[in-house]
Specification:
With 218 residues, this protein is mainly alpha-helical. It is 69% helix and 0% strand.
């Protein structure tokens, strides 16, 4: 039976104008909100680009500061530049800067270049094709969006229903294996998959709109 517990408010649901204005003003609550919503995306993007944990943390911090300093240049207009794209530009510039800093440090220490079989960092041009930064960013954005949506909807369903969805859809177990492992009927597997999928699609669309529709106060 589907739980009737009310959906908790997502921590990323603060108003976007107040979020950006708060960042500029140094409001600690708004900084925490920004980090909860966009910090994991920025950090994951930096790690996948080939940075270390410490370097990725620095990128996340510097990008957040950069957003606060440069936000006046951003005007929300999905026809020309979405917030997601603008934030990518802020983050990618700082990722490239970390690579430059690393190179300068290696040059000072005269660190030997990696051999043919060694690589210190991922070559993003090989990882992501023609648009490496955009592809890495989009992948991380969607991954963190999925995590947030799943965290929001999971209390709408019983533990068994959500486990069915996790095994059948996320872990890609065959429906017959899920039914056998959990001791439920095939009909229960299909029904749970359908219900959770519908809720997840709806919540993901809502969060995508929430994360992207960042406007400045007029």
């Amino acid at each position: 039976m589907t739980s009737t517990m009310p959906r908790p408010e997502s921590p990323s649901l603060g108003t976007r104008p107040s979020l950006i204005a708060g960042l500029k003003a140094g409001d600690e609550d708004r900084w925490q909100e920004f980090f909860r919503t966009y910090g994991p995306v920025i950090r994951g993007f930096a790690l996948k680009a080939g940075l270390t944990e410490a370097e990725a943390d620095e990128v996340m911090q510097e990008t957040s500061i950069g957003v606060a300093r440069n936000v006046e240049e951003f005007r929300y207009d999905p026809r020309t530049c979405r917030f997601k794209t603008w934030l990518l530009n802020q983050a990618s510039w700082r990722v490239k800067n970390q690579f430059a800093k690393r190179q300068r440090w290696e040059d000072r220490l005269q660190v030997p270049k990696p051999g043919a079989g060694e690589r210190e960092a991922a070559d993003v041009s090989e990882v992501a094709g023609a648009d490496p930064w955009g592809a890495l960013w989009e992948g991380e954005w969607q991954a963190k969006l999925l995590e947030a949506a799943l965290a929001t909807i999971r209390l709408e369903f019983s533990a068994t229903q959500f486990q069915i969805f996790d095994l059948n859809v996320l872990k890609e177990w065959p429906a017959s294996d899920v039914a056998k492992a959990l001791g439920v009927s095939m009909a229960s597997v299909y029904l749970a998959k359908h219900r959770v999928s519908v809720a997840l699609k709806k919540e993901s669309a809502r969060l995508e709109d929430q994360w992207e529709n960042v406007e400045l106060p007029t």
